[in-house]
Amino acid sequence: MHCEDTKDPEATWNESWRALEKAYAEGRVMSIGVSNFNVTLLDEVTSFSSIRPHVVQNWAEPGHVDDDVRMWCFRNDAVYQPYASVRNLHTMSEEMAQSLATIAQAKKKSTHATALRFFLQTGAAIIPRSSIEEHLRENIDIFNMEELTADEMKTLGWHLDLEGVEEVEEDHDGDEEGEEVEEEEGEEL
Ligand SMILES: NC(=O)c1ccc[n+]([C@@H]2O[C@H](COP(=O)([O-])OP(=O)(O)OC[C@H]3O[C@@H](n4cnc5c(N)ncnc54)[C@H](OP(=O)(O)O)[C@@H]3O)[C@@H](O)[C@H]2O)c1
Question: Which of 66, 78, 105, 161 gives the lowest tally of CB atoms within 10 Å of its CB?
Fold first, then answer.
């Protein structure tokens, strides 16, 4: 569910979320998620719904890793999916561009591949877009790329300390306010 400004011409986004929950409960989709949601909106979803978002797709790039939402995802067992993670590498701050170029040079990879590898190592589900075969191959090859060190990760903006971070206990997939959403027994989702 895409949220630009939380307005919808025909309904509220809360109602759209309810429709997604229904589709999920009926087994018509395997997972449901939101896009362009901050922590306030994410907390709002979980406050009225029985299923918390499985995926959050937000803008992120080296130097802007969306810390608060990342932490929310870790605590709520949601997949974080960054978009535009390599689209604007040419307009980043000079300092960040230089840091990325230095790390890329050390790894003998392009800045695009290095940025993608960075996000991969944060645990994000990356979705780079390309129409060039060579770029597609390069992007797939980041799974074989040399790991970025902890210092390199910090340089590119990864400062979250996940030590001791606990998942939210509450079972949002359960029954809330009498609106039970059933999953079939043994069903793999
Ligand atoms: N939820 C939202 O609000 C939202 C907003 C925007 C985008 N998205 C989604 O996010 C996904 C990613 O798209 P994006 O537009 O954000 O862009 P992106 O993947 O961050 O960047 C795409 C740009 O990077 C270039 N590129 C990719 N790999 C490269 C490589 N190895 N070397 C050099 N250049 C490379 C591509 O050019 P070439 O084609 O020349 O390789 C293209 O210009 C898409 O699925 C899109 O639909 C979602």
Answer: 161
